[in-house]
What we know:
43% of the residues lie in helices and 14% in strands. The chain is an alpha/beta fold. Strands 1-2-3-4-5-6-7-8 form an eight-stranded parallel barrel, surrounded by eight helices. Strand 4, helix 7 and strand 5 (182-186) form a beta-alpha-beta unit.
Amino acid sequence: MPTVEEVLRAGPVLSEASIFERLRRTPGIEFDPEVGIGALVTDSRWQPALWEIHRSYLEIGLEAGLPVLLQTDTWRAHPRRVARSRYSDRDLNAENARMLRDLRHTEAERGGTVIIGGLVGPLGDGYGGDIAPSAEVAEMEMRAQVEELETAGVDVLIAGTLPNAEEALGISRALAASTLPYIVGVVVRADGTLLDETPLRDFVERVDHGTRRPPLGYALNCVHPTIADEALAAQPIGDRAIGLFANASALTPEELDGRDELDASTPEAFAVELIATGQTHGLSILGGCCGTDASHLRAVAALLRR
């Protein structure tokens, strides 16, 4: 039976579409200002909505015969933010991981491969390339969340929407101290630089050589497939590129940050562009981010199945 690393590397693996953006537009739901959707798992009113979105994405992948990567709703749920929230007495990382393990168990009769990713980071807002801690501070701050997710039984650790090379290096070191495979996801511009203007290729070399155990691979987060394609062409990193969690909008991070109106390409166009970028650059994990929903993921799954 293949290992988690082998499945993620071989692909194609279908990740999920947006959860945060879908719930943000659901009437009545309020996010905690510190941990966002990470606390919804504790609320009997909204936990079923969270469960159903994950379940619908899982169903799309399993029906297409694809391995599926689920990700915990623990973006920003690191100890400093949790301590400042109303949930300082809860282990939000463990509770979110448990929900996905329960979902996997519930759907086990369908068969197929379901991998649970524990999502960590960022310490900042994900879009502020000039506002980030040092590598030492980032490693120290993130270590506890990494340990909580590992103990909670996730299969792989994923750092998401990291804008700053120094912060990402520190978080990578915290991830490397675990026993789990891990993936580092960054936000890039079309010229192939992170938001703090670090060239992607330089960043990859720095993390690969600056951690005790390098990542399984690197993913691009929160960018349109065409932007990801340009970035990887401008700063090729070869087989160190593993995934793309793509926006349905080609707007810049600054234009998307906090935007109330949804900007999204059609599911069919998104799927074609996502898969084309994946094939061009050898990406084995494909999924959605801002502006995507089940219709986008269904279109991606249909093309991958064909």
